[in-house]
Specification:
Elements lengths: L5 E8 L16 H20 L4 E7 L9 E4 L5 H11 L3 E5 L8 H9 L7 E6 L4 E6 L26 H11 L4 E7 L5 H8 L7 H9 L16
Parallel strand pairs: 1-2, 1-4, 2-3, 5-7
Antiparallel strand pairs: 4-6, 5-6
Helix pairs in contact: 1-6
Length: about 230
Amino acid sequence: MSATTTTIVVMAKECLPGRVKTRLHPPLTLDDAARVAAASLADTLDTVVGTGLDVVVCAQGEVPVPAGVAVIPQVAGGLDERIAAAFDAVDGRVLLIGMDTPQCDPQLLVGIAADWPDDVDAFFGAAHDGGFWLLGLEGPRSERLVGLRRGDLVRGVPMSTAETGRRQRARLVDAGLRVAEVAALTDIDDLASLREVSRDLVPGGRLARLLPELGVLDASHPTAERGGAS
């Protein structure tokens, strides 16, 4: 087991109507889409805080965080620049995730941090839409990263496209890094992906409690009968 510090960085943004999860509108109102985003973020933060690892939220706008969680602002620019700056701002090993996969397994994150193999420089978790939900990088003083800015492994990768994940992983491999895969996840983009994620949520979480109220679950979902029309 390595004693090297591993920090979970969560990329998060203020959940304002019309600024988040707009592909959920319609059928949701913009207000309710923002509520989905806020619940997803809250569940994600509960998950990462529960790991016991260091947590940093890289925030765009005002983002509420649990006590003891550090917050750094996102820089200006595209998502690649904002992710890159987060990697450059945090020392040690980093596991970077977003706020759209509240179903992520905390034990997976703990396991990576507790037993990061010596022959792995990066962990990569693909998203089913072609992006990625997790990017883990060794510390900047590790042998294969000496002389590199970790942010440069992300800068210039086109984000939010069906090719993002493939191109990001290729960037790591082209830099000579040894990459380990973790299980792919679905992130919340639209109604179909929201319904898919809903089946893997921890019962009692904020998003699991909200969705039946919004009435967007399909008829086969075990909690759909509790919902009402939004």
